[in-house]
Structure formats: structure tokens, C-alpha cells
Amino acid sequence: MNKRAMMSYLLASVLAMAGFTGVADSLTVQAAAPAKDYASHTAKAAIDFGVQKKYLWLDSKGNFYPNSQITQGQFIASLVAIRELKEVAPVPQLPAGHWAKMSYEKAQKAGILAGVKVEPNRLLTKEETAALVYAAWKPIRGEKNPNLTNTGALITWGWMKPAPSGQPKFREDLPVTRGEAAEILRYLWKDKWQLEQGAKFADEFHKSLKVVNGKISGKVPKGDSDFKIIAQVNKKPDGREGFLNNQSFNIPVNNVSFITFLIINYNDSTDAGVYKYTKLPVLEQTNYTRKFYTEKGTK
């Protein structure tokens, strides 16, 4: 191990022993102190966001150590906090009282540790970090592209930065700093949140739909300033009509081919949900929200 790696490892060990990364499962969470060592760091916004949402933590002096390499235990603690996992399964590799034991037990129950050697102080590479992301997000976004490494798939999705210019784009062996991890984790928190909001609006829209006297009626949820919500009515033989936030419609059902319901995040134009009704007049809702990977020829 080179000198730089050794120093990073020792720092990670000290932080872990001090319980710095273990507050995810403590009864109290330390209030965010003024930013010290990351005040001018490029990941400051992501770090502040994570501290605010309580899946990242500062030490007692308000430091985050953004340039130190992220450890397995630190990253798993954050993933567990974002997923808001509650149920546990035994992780006998960690002794009672270990700061990360509860986080690992929750990760174990959720299937995040499948094939992972339990090493809380292990310094993570891009490939190891990306593998944990896909394990944690499998119930949410499905399987990754099998034709790419975990690193390549996560970079392609846009949640991990590629290697520096002049190097192979998908270098799996590069280290992941705590600052870089904070940016990845912010993507995860926002993705989970927006999909939850999208599902809520889709349920509200579905409950509004009715077929009465040969007409289909419904109302697009009012939503809020974060989302543009659209009910797109595709008519026979062609043509379409769109209805936005808080608008209602009442159309002869025989004139409708299918209905697409979309929730779009105003902040970054990502889809927070795509749902379709293709068996009208049967009001059967199918979720077409984008997955990490879709087989060719399927949706």
C-alpha cells in the first residue's frame, strides 16, 4: 500500500472508531456545524444536502474530509439511511457494539450485501461503489445493463463521473472520494424521492378515472411547483390532446386509443413516472417508468 493510501486508510479507521460515520443508527443526530474543510469544495452543495437530509454526517468540528477515500461502512450507512430501511438480518462478521453493525444488518436484509465481503474500513473503488449502488437500487430501478461493468453502467446513467481526460472512461479501479460519494448519494436521494412523488400522483390520477355513459373522465393532480404532470389522451385514428396540472377531461371512450400519464421533474426534466392505460375501457394502469436497463424490444 502506498503512503497516500495508507494515510487515507488510517484516517478512515480513526473516523470509524470514533463513531463519525455511525450516527445513522444513533438515537440522536448531530446538528450540522459550519462547513470547515469543504467550504470551497466542488461537492459542497451535495455534502450540505446530505447533511440536511441526514444521510451524511460531519464530525464535531464540522469537517467532512471530502478528499479522503470513502469506506465501505460509510457508504453502506448512507445507502441504508436513504432507503430508510428498518428490517434487519444477522451479520455475524461484526461484533456487538460495532458502529456499523446496525447499518450492515439492515443492508443484509435488503439484499445489498449479496456477494459483498463485510469490511467496513475497506476503501472503495469506482467498481465497488457502483456495485453497491446497483444492489441498493435494484428494487427501485431494476437490473443494470449486463453488457457494462457496474462502473460503466453507472457512468452511462449519469450518476458517476467518468475517469479524468486522457484515461479510459470507465476505469473501475479508481478511488472514490467522500466528496464524489456525496454527489452520487444526492442522485440516489432525489431519485427515490421523485419516484415516490410520481407514484403518489399516479395513484391520485388513477382514482379520479371513471367510465360513465360511454365517456372517460379524470382529473390531473394539482401537484406542486416541482412537477409538471400531464395526461396525454391519444385519440383514434390519430391525434392527441394533453391535460396539465389540475385540469379535467371528459371524452367519449370509443375515441380514445390509450392514455399516457407522465410526471416530469421541473428541476432537471427527468421522468418521475410514466404510466399507461392501453386496455380501455378497462382502467388498468401499467408502470412504464424508466429502468436502469430494458431488454431490446421491450418497455
The total beta strand count reads: 8
Major β-sheet annotation: 5 strands, antiparallel
The helix fraction, in percent, is 25-40%
> Strand sequence of the main sheet, in spatial order?
4-3-6-7-8
Structural summary, described in words:
The chain has 299 residues and is an alpha+beta fold. It has helices spanning 3-17, 44-53, 72-83, 101-109, 126-141, 150-157, 178-208, and strands spanning 210-212, 215-219, 227-235, 240-243, 248-252, 256-265, 271-277, 286-287. Strands 4-3-6-7-8 form a 5-stranded antiparallel beta sheet. Strands 1-2-5 form a 3-stranded antiparallel beta sheet. A hairpin with a 2-residue loop joins strand 1 and strand 2 (215-219).
What's the helix and strand layout?
Blueprint: H1 3-17, H2 44-53, H3 72-83, H4 101-109, H5 126-141, H6 150-157, H7 178-208, E1 210-212, E2 215-219, E3 227-235, E4 240-243, E5 248-252, E6 256-265, E7 271-277, E8 286-287
Antiparallel strand pairs: 1-2, 2-5, 3-4, 3-6, 6-7, 7-8
